[in-house]
């Protein structure tokens, strides 16, 4: 098996994620504990949910199933902390924070516990699902803007002393409606993202430039608002657009199966390259309107090629017939940011390069 890893061993361990949570009918067949699973594991600071689930489970995506987690806990599982002990309850096929035999079980033999209340750090010291440094740059920076956003976005209309470019602490004069918002990200429309199914534009991949803060709103008789560049990743200039800064993103989420079947195509590989390997970011042509949410895990397939059937009968025109090969499963995709019609995901494991037009779908 070829491994296209470019990140450290911790995410290689995370790459064991190769599917999604089973439905109840499938749970016994798919949610199996490893033959050499330990009886317990003491959580340490740099553990992730994948690190731990990989110690216990043959298929780490079964993590929500063996904990009996509800939707709220899947979305925000701030309840496992360093120094806690996770036990394998072999009799009931569950993971628990209560030593087997020390807690009360329900009618199904399942020990239920409530998440422990922790005020320290407001949950920030809870262990993470994945090593967030890999996707940190993508959690809050604009990636996709649609035509509606482009049409109503405030824009940088002028600079102090007619500067061509701006950096940190420079002044920008902005024209447009602020709607009571004072903190914005600055972007420049980039590559159009086309749906591989019909070639229609789904949105534009935005080039993130930095952030600006409102210093003074436009007064009567003045056409522009005054902003200060708070941070600069790239130089800004007249014509660049503003989008409100998003709220602090959720950093902890559990991998899970989408609520409905998803059959998506790869729209782009981030950073403009043609092929993607492990720990690279992809966009797909499905979003929140299709039932995709943060934490959704999809299977990646290379599209089956059409090849000549050299052993088949020639057509009346003398042409060699063709056959279509099946799609080949090559890895998994973890969705970490979702827009209306597009989502971004991190490739957790891959055996062959993934390219635009390949398939990302829910488990069969």
Automatic annotation (TrEMBL):
Q: Which UniProt keywords apply?
A: Signal
Q: Does the keyword Lipid biosynthesis apply?
A: no
Gene3D superfamilies assigned to the protein according to its UniProt record, in alphabetical order? LysM domain
- Where would I find the LysM domain in this sequence? 39-88
List the Pfam families hit by this protein, alphabetically.
Answer: LysM (PF01476)
Signal peptide limits: 1-27
Family annotation (CDD domains): LysM
Annotated protein name in UniProt: LysM peptidoglycan-binding domain-containing protein
Q: Which organism is it from?
A: Massilia glaciei
Native organism taxonomy: Bacteria, Pseudomonadati, Pseudomonadota, Betaproteobacteria, Burkholderiales
